[in-house]
Input
Amino acid sequence: MSLQNTLKALSDPIRREILNLLKGGRLSAGEITGHFSVTGAAISRHLSLLREADLIRDTREGKFIFYELNASVLEEIMLWITDLKGANDHAEEE
Amino acid sequence: MSLQNTLKALSDPIRREILNLLKGGRLSAGEITGHFSVTGAAISRHLSLLREADLIRDTREGKFIFYELNASVLEEIMLWITDLKGANDHAEEE
DNA sequence: TTAACATTTAACTTAATCGTTAAATATAAC
DNA sequence: GTTATATTTAACGATTAAGTTAAATGTTAA
Output
């Protein structure tokens, strides 16, 4: 169920861009929203999906909620792909 | 556009399972269909999406169409994830 | 305790996705 | 050439996804 959640979360370009933004450090929901041309409500839903996939973590500080990247769950995708590529690389050698 | 296509293709469990099946070698559309409890038409559409994402290649041989894995496009995802994880790993060290 | 700000949740609309059945296409076999 | 087999494409219905606006929640500050 976890790999499914992760890949689903990554299949949307806005959500991927949010992750890219968070590479530079934690940002509040409002700061994230500022980077896109959709409403805060829409971004909030994207953030919630990313959180459910455990790709981000959130901390409230006063009236702000800060989001930060948690890329460790991507390890599972790396393993899955490595497995798949392994089989393929072998085939390409023939 | 390519990363988007690839991740979209990978976001469906049946399509991922098709790729897993093809790890073991080429299979005809019918053989692939046999592994699932959906119709051949549904599998055909999944195969077409995987082909558009260049994750598989097809060759007709007589009345069969054989599909084989092309995992090389997954490299792009690996790079994207590595980039993301790199930023995150650094943060975790602090 | 009211007003303002930051964010989420709810209700709704539209578009995309996935499945089905039926028809079309391509090849092989009789 | 007609029939059978393998696969795809078309047309349709159901479900999910993504966006919007409006209302709700949580926090700070007057």
